[in-house]
Design brief:
Elements (H helix, E strand, L loop, with lengths): L1 H41 L3 E8 L5 E10 L8 E12 L9 E15 L1 E2 L2 E2 H21 L13 E9 L1 E5 L10 E4 L2 E6 L7 H16 L2 H13 L4 H10 L3 H11 L2
Parallel strand pairs: 4-7, 4-8
Antiparallel strand pairs: 1-2, 2-3, 3-4, 5-6, 7-10, 8-9
Length: 258
């Protein structure tokens, strides 16, 4: 009986040690994943201020997340996020797919910038879609001589974005603060039951964010903000014409629904 009790205590100690190791390694794993895959997917700089791991295994918070702007855009960042909360199913850390119970993006600020016939957020989204295509192709047919395995699939049960704002960052506004609230977003069961490659999951999320940026509600709100600052669209277009030309004016016109 004594040997049985000792065995049970030993098993419990092993479980506790494994749990503690998982908790303290989780922040490092998340930070490495963001630093590695972020720039690879978006073709921009990506930075995290800190990763705070909760006492309960599987929960972490990414603080002060920064998504850089693509090359050629003037704003320093495309998006700043005060907090990204991640709740992983720790039992699936070594499984494929990895199950993420919840991702909650809190108070993101998106700097929207038109350039030519496109904009910074659409450029990032296109970069991520290209990365997703490469990951899916590598999953089906790995490149000869490449030992690196494709990233494991993921399932995201719930994704939330709350408290978001979009600001207009472009020439002609002369430093005026023009911003609008982004409607909250809730996506469910990204990846289904079998999971999808991480870049594809990110593309789905960014696509929904971009749709909100382009929505009539946000465009109308930005129009009202422009009027509060006494900015006339005709004058703004004239200023843009002196700079980047017709393509930029057309991009702004499309965005504002003119």
């Amino acid at each position: 009986m004594k040997k049985i009790l000792i065995g049970i205590v030993g098993i419990l100690l092993v479980v506790i040690v494994i749990g503690v190791v998982a908790i303290y390694n989780l922040g490092t794993l998340i930070e490495k994943a963001v630093n590695h895959y972020g720039p690879q997917y978006t073709k921009t700089d990506v930075a995290i201020g800190d990763v705070d791991v909760a006492l309960r295994a599987g929960k972490a918070e990414l603080q002060n997340f920064l998504l850089g702007n693509p090359e050629g855009y003037t704003a320093e960042t495309a998006m700043k996020v005060r907090s990204i909360r991640v709740d992983l199913n720790e039992k699936t850390l070594t499984d494929d797919p990895l199950v993420i119970e919840e991702i909650r993006v809190v108070d993101p600020i998106i700097n929207y910038e038109v350039k030519g016939k496109t904009d910074n957020f659409r450029t990032i989204l296109n970069n991520v879609r290209q990365a997703a295509g490469k990951e899916k192709a590598a999953e089906k047919k790995p490149e000869p001589g490449v030992e690196q395995k494709p990233p494991k699939k993921v399932v995201i049960k719930d994704f939330y974005l709350t408290g978001g704002e979009v600001t207009m960052a472009m020439a002609g506004l002369q430093g005026k603060d023009v911003r609008a609230t982004i409607p909250d977003i809730h996506l469910e069961n990204i990846g289904g039951s079998g999971g999808i490659v991480p870049a594809e999951a990110l593309a789905i999320i960014l696509d929904q964010i971009y749709k909100q940026i382009q929505s009539g509600k946000v465009r109308n709100a930005l129009n009202r903000e422009l009027e509060k600052h006494g900015v006339k669209l005709d004058t703004l277009r004239e200023d843009l014409q002196k700079g980047a030309g017709e393509a930029v004016r057309k991009g702004l016109q499309d965005f504002l629904g003119e």
